[in-house]
Amino acid sequence: MKLKAKTKKIIVLSVMVVLLVATGVLNWALNDKLLGADDGGGQAAVTETFFASYRSDREAARESEFLYLDAIMSSETSSAEAKAEAEQQKLGLVERMETEMRVEALVKAKGFEDAIVTMSDEGVNVVVGAGEVTDQQRMQIYDIIQSETEFSAGDVKIIPYA
After folding, report:
1. Do the beta carbons of residue 124 and residue 158 sit within 8 Å?
2. Smallest Cα–Cα separation from 50: which of 138, 156, 134, 128?
3. Are the C-beta atoms of residues 159 and 127 closer than 8 Å to each other?
4. Is it the case that residue 101 has pLDDT exceeding 60?
5. DSSP class of residue 160?
6. Can you tell which superkingdom this protein's organism belongs to (predicted)?
7. Are strands 156-160 and 124-128 parallel, antiparallel or unpaired?
């Protein structure tokens, strides 16, 4: 049984809405749990909540991107060029995700409480769980970025978050 293009779009959008709602519920539950775990709802819980919330939001957004690209690739109305472009974008997204995870782990290995790395075509943003970042720590992060990506130190933005 073949589904019409309009039906496929409705299904994809419905799945995206369900994922968005699930992300909101998960975000609320994590916020409640982390803030409740700390006696005064202090800064440590807020920091943990920020990193957990960002990861949850990023995962939901990427899932939506994958669904969108999959819909293009499986659509009978998409051109061969559009399907090839969607496949390339999907492969690029997977590669970017792997690099971000690898860099995050390496930054945390340097002694930071937590780290979030986001990459774009223009550069890399690194949010680290620290009140401030020393010049030595900045150099360590720059070295990690340069060894794992094609970006130079000038393309990297380091943001302390505590």
Report:
1. no
2. 128
3. yes
4. yes
5. E
6. Bacteria
7. parallel
